[in-house]
Design a protein that fits this description.
By secondary structure, this protein is mainly α. The protein has one domain. Helices cover 61% and strands 0% of the residues. The chain has 5 helices and no strands. The longest helix is centred in the middle third of the chain and has 22 residues.
Length: 111
């Protein structure tokens, strides 16, 4: 089975779209790992906050490194990142101090 986005097709996709697609994938995976797709996130079978931390940190690094290239996409992507950071803090039994949560070394403290 061939990947729907072949290597040849990737050469035709603008960088901003590739970056945005990667950001959306990281956001979706992080939301799943926080449990946000379940009616009760606390009992989600997919909840894994260690994995969510990694995904959110990777997303924050991507967003910080590419913000200047995202144009009109930058605001919504940053908003999605912040929402995930806040959801992570809310889901944590022992929340990190502001400035020490996932990705906050790239974004600064999230309140």
């Amino acid at each position: 089975m061939t990947d729907p986005t072949s290597i040849r097709e990737l050469g035709d996709i603008p960088a901003v779209e590739v970056i945005t697609r990667a950001a959306v994938m990281l956001m979706s995976a992080a939301a799943e790992k926080i449990g946000l797709s379940s009616p009760d996130p606390d009992t989600s079978e997919h909840r894994d906050l260690d994995e969510a931390r990694r995904l959110i940190t990777a997303l924050a690094g991507l967003v910080s490194a590419s913000a200047e290239y995202l144009g009109p996409h930058a605001g919504p992507v940053r908003d999605g990142l912040k929402s995930l950071q806040l959801a992570f803090r809310e889901a944590s039994v022992a929340p990190d101090e502001p400035g020490h949560g996932p990705g906050e070394k790239f974004t600064g403290p999230v309140w």
